Amino acid sequence: MRVALFITCVNDTLFPGTGKAVVSLLRRLGCDVDFPAAQTCCGQMHVNTGYPEEGVRLARHFTEVFAGYDAVVAPSGSCAAMVREQYPKLVRPGSRGAAAIAEVAPRVYELSEFLIDVLKVDDVGAYFPHRVTYHPTCHSLRGLRLGDRPTRLLSKVRGLELVPLPAAEECCGFGGTFAVKNPAVSAAMGADKAHNVLGTGAEVLCAADNSCLMHIGGTLNRQRAGVRIMHLAEILATTEATP
Amino acid sequence: MSGTFLGMPGNFPQNAAKAVQNSQLRYNLRKATHTIRGKRASVVSELPDWQELRAAGKAIKDETLRHLDRYLLQLEEAVTAAGGTVHWARDAAEANRIVTDLVKATGETEVVKVKSMATQEIELNEALAEQGITAYETDLAELIVQLGDDFPSHILVPAIHRNRAEIREIFLDKMAETPPGLTDEPAALAEAARLHLRERFLKSKVAISGANFMIAETGTLVVLESEGNGRMCLTLPQTLISVVGIEKLLPAWRDLEVFLQLLPRSSTGERMNPYTSMWTGAVEGQDFHLVLLDNGRTGVLADEVGRQALRCIRCSACLNVCPVYERAGGHAYGSVYPGPIGAILTPQLRGMSSDLDASLPYASSLCGACFDACPVAIDIPEVLVHLRAKAPHAPAERAGMRVAGWILNDEVRLGKAQRLAIRFRKLVPKRLPGPLSAWTDTRDLPEIPEESFRDWWERHERP
What is the SS3 assignment for B315? Predict the structure, then answer.
């Protein structure tokens, strides 16, 4: 199977470790992983901040780069939801680029969807002997409807103790440019999320989106809370041989 | 109310920043919204066909909106045939003039009111007061807001920002007949309000209401309520004037079956509300006037994406699940329509020329909880994003977004920008200057890595 990694611009720039984890995980599971170097950004920031023209240009660029792959895997629920849920609304049927979107968008998967729905595995052979809590980010929960896919994967990780996060389904307050356009409310939401994370006693906070983790983690770090943030891919890539 | 929302200074982020500092307000709102949220979730989960009901509600409203012209005329005909008089109001000023003239014609200077969003929207009470007519709110929460010279902060529970100790203070201060030994027990507070209102119901000759639904087929108006004050207002006075937005229409009587299930479960979290009043035209010699209100609605109808906001049945489910509303409070939205639905309705009804109205489409993290809770499936995040594209943008932001778009549209430019950031990574301060301080005021920045993923791939993996 020819699988393309869509790293996303945030991971590419700030969290390369997540990308390396996806590559090692997918190879371990027998996939032929390619990284189309012309990829850039899905355009979510522009579209959701009110700049659809720029967003449309980025959407066209995306479909050109990822045409022809069997599957496109993104370690981000938010960016995968952007392509699958928002592209068809952004470029209405019949307009330029709509056909290419209809072709590519359904083959874009968030990592846990790809593992469970396409590769049909929930035990990826990972080993991670730590206490972990999982935050289901809004776009993976209510956009892609990932359901329990990520926690099913985590519950099969050897040594991992998964502790439930209270009010897990509540938004952390990141919201892209919302975090700087409405900083007071964003920070208040982030503080409540951080409080709930601390209450679990977890060593690691895990999610399928590094952008939300950057916000919650930044809040936790400012409090010197000592909780580590880790993307789902990084936990799933860890084995006894490669800790 | 002593003032009005119109022309309020500030914008949503500024208003919200003040509200989040008010720990009493946040406690009150958190407690109240989480209680209703829990009740709603439990009564909704009882119905195996909730998603089908939701789809039916959406379909009926869409059908109504598509043929609104036809259904409105059908309604006018039915109401007129049943002895009522129908008036058409283009905007708030016209509606207020019609109602004021109708009240003046009765010779009365006092009216009782059933809780109504449409009359709040047009600021009818203030318009009546200018003409020497006093309007008395009879819904308990509206009464609390009115007595407290306050603004409503929630669609269903306008005094949600007040706790019972604060309500006791307002009653002791503003209701002359209140016994000084009044406690803050809910039953005692309700009894005090009941005594205060009973006199008004018996004395008043004119009542003003809105309506939850209007049936085009029969000309019937429907009001759902919990307290029975509405029933008193609708039946006792000689003259009844109902001000209703043109989108409150349903085509046929049998359509109520769907909405009488959707609305109570979504709003108060009850299987059925205590009082459902229905009336058709002038009943038992009453004078009945129906004022059909446009006030920007036909403009909303013309917007293909935005028009779904007109499906709203004012249940408040979106407010009660919204993490932003819970922390910012209703007043921050500067409108009688707060919360997620307000963030898409107010800018469409009022336009986005004021700083406040232009900030409303951004008053959301786009978490999607509102869309899931909406009983008529209004895709609120979709409309928010749609309105953001129409909102005025600050020149500096526009320029920044253009540059970001230019960089992100080309992998070579993106790679160069990343390498530049990496070269200066050690120079990035802990606290960023200017608008970016909004991030670093409360959060640490992530560390910029030594190498981007694309450069790592290029070095290690490229075949």
Answer: coil
